[in-house]
């Protein structure tokens, strides 16, 4: 440690959390009313629906034991449901017992939640069993729901009375204002629709922080934040929300200084015990991107030590040959693909983050760190070219089995260890050879689209964007999904689609591409 480092007083974790608290947004509230009653049926490929009756019939019908009604709100909602119930007939001599179920996607409404035995808790399934003892009553459901569809099942009343629903609406919440984003008009109508759904996805994930999904997990993940922030800069421009999230991560580091993969905000901010190699490095990326769009130098100065610490910790995973060790004792995300070896992707992400740290060091005029990071970047690139690049195959390989994957090539293109022309050739070879270790999530598809764009392959980027996110729209998406595999639409990393998130932050990035590169 030199004399300058000894005298610098860096802000404390408490200071960072105080800054984050001061940047807390005010949630906007808009009432959304249902549009129709629907009938669910099995279509040729998946569950679909047809309009059964206008919504007015919900408020004129009476219901008794065994009745059920499926309601369509016409759009994805995130918020709090309110309904009023009154008795019809004799005075109620027993409580009304209701089951209320919500779903973002029709598959959630079609499946029996009691059959779910997946890897995540069934408590994420959005359903309530409610006893109504006194009627008439205003029933305010306390949980926040993310849904388009709502089912009410009358489990029991008594033979002496029926119930009637007098009104129903959802008080939606978001820290973003849909009216603040100008509507674009590309020459391609599909791109306009993809942009619209992308903006809606972002809107519904922008709460007190950038949530990964308003249905599940409802927390701040830094991998999602990085992509949300990039899209936010092109749409809502709610830059204080990005800044708030940066300070939360800085104030809630692990004991060794690593930035956690995610943080919880309720009842008060607390860090999770999950740490991901790539996600910790993405703190550097988030800070870099934030500065490039805001020029907020004061924020960079305060968070610079936290950013540098992520690189210092990542260096401990390096072997003597300048390549990250391929071990199972540390976790790197990259994509939801169980067979993906992540050594090469992690190496490329490390290079990507170190280059961004060099830029920030230059901005801060921190010559010592700039030299350190430039030397580290050279070491990482040299190691990658000597050990991970297989010239005979024309691909980067990963792990002891020298696996060739889409993810490895995509991330090395983004890390720009080769020239633009070489990267273009690599991507064309990737598309032609189509290695079997494929992309699974919209998260990795985003990086693939970005790699195409920066390599001068705009035509291919647009085609893949339209095919992938356009495929979700063709399947009826109101918001874009956590997971979408066109070849396996039943796919879920958790054992069932009923637990998947159908409004998910890392999938809401098409507006970033469309507005940055096209409009």
Please explain how this structure is put together.
The radius of gyration is 25 Å and the shape is globular. It is an alpha+beta fold. 45% of the residues are buried. The chain has helices at 3-7, 13-22, 106-110, 189-205, 222-234, 239-251, 277-294, 297-315, 343-364, 367-388, 406-415, 420-433, 442-454, 458-474, 510-518; strands at residues 28-32, 36-42, 47-54, 68-89, 96-103, 127-132, 137-140, 145-156, 161-174, 220-221, 262-264, 270-271, 389-390, 395-396. Mean pLDDT is 95; it is low at 1-8. 40% of the residues lie in helices and 19% in strands. Strands 1, 2, 3, 4, 5, 6, 7, 8 and 9 form a 9-stranded antiparallel sheet that branches. A 3-stranded antiparallel sheet has the order 10-11-12. A two-stranded antiparallel ribbon has the order 13-14. α9 (343-364) packs antiparallel against α10. It has 15 helices and 14 strands. It has 2 domains: 28-174, Jelly Rolls (Sandwich); 178-518, Glycosyltransferase. The protein starts with a helix and ends with a helix.
């Amino acid at each position: 440690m030199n004399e300058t480092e000894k005298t610098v007083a860096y802000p404390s974790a408490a200071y960072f959390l105080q800054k984050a608290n001061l940047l807390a947004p005010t949630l906007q509230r808009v009432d959304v009313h249902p549009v129709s009653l629907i009938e669910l049926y099995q279509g040729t490929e998946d569950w679909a629906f047809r309009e059964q009756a206008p919504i007015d019939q919900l408020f004129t019908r009476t219901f008794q034991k065994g009745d059920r009604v499926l309601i369509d709100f016409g759009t994805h909602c995130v918020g709090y449901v309110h309904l009023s119930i009154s008795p019809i007939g004799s005075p109620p001599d027993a409580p009304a017992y209701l089951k209320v179920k919500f779903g973002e996607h029709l598959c959630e409404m079609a499946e029996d939640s009691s059959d779910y035995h997946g890897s995540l808790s069934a408590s994420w399934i959005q359903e309530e069993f409610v006893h109504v003892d006194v009627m008439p009553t205003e029933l305010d459901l306390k949980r926040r729901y993310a849904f388009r569809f709502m089912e009410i099942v009358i489990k029991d009343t008594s033979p002496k009375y029926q119930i009637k629903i007098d009104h129903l609406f959802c008080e939606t919440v978001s820290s973003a204002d849909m009216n603040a984003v100008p509507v674009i008009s590309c020459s391609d109508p599909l791109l306009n629709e993809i942009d619209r759904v992308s903006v809606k996805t972002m809107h519904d994930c922008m709460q007190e922080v950038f949530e990964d999904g308003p249905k599940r997990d409802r927390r701040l993940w830094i991998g999602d934040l990085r992509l949300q922030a990039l899209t936010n800069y092109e749409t809502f421009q709610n830059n204080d929300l990005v800044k708030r999230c940066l300070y939360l991560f800085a104030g809630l580091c692990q004991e060794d200084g690593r930035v956690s993969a995610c943080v919880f905000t309720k009842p008060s901010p607390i860090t999770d015990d999950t740490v991901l190699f790539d996600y910790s490095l993405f703190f550097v990326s988030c800070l870099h991107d934030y500065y490039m769009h805001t020029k907020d130098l004061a924020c960079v100065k305060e968070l610079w030590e936290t950013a540098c610490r992520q690189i210092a910790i990542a260096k401990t995973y390096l072997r003597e040959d300048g390549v990250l060790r391929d071990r199972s004792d540390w976790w790197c995300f990259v994509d939801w693909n169980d067979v993906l070896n992540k050594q090469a992707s992690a190496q490329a992400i490390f290079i990507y983050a170190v280059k961004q740290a060099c830029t920030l060091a230059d901005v801060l005029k921190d010559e010592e760190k700039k030299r350190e990071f430039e030397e580290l970047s050279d070491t990482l690139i040299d190691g990658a070219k000597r050990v991970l690049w297989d010239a005979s195959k024309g691909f980067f390989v990963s792990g002891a089995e020298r696996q060739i994957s889409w993810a490895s090539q995509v991330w090395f293109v983004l890390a720009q260890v080769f020239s633009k022309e070489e990267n273009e050739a690599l991507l064309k070879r990737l598309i032609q050879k189509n290695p079997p270790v494929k992309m699974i999530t919209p998260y990795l598809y985003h990086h693939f689209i970005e790699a195409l764009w920066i390599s001068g392959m705009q035509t291919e980027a647009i085609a893949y964007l339209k095919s992938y996110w356009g495929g979700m729209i063709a399947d009826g998406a109101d918001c874009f999904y956590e997971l979408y595999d066109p070849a396996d639409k039943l796919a879920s990393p958790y054992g069932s689609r009923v637990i998947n998130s159908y409004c998910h932050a890392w999938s809401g990035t098409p507006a970033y591409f469309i507005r940055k590169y096209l409009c």
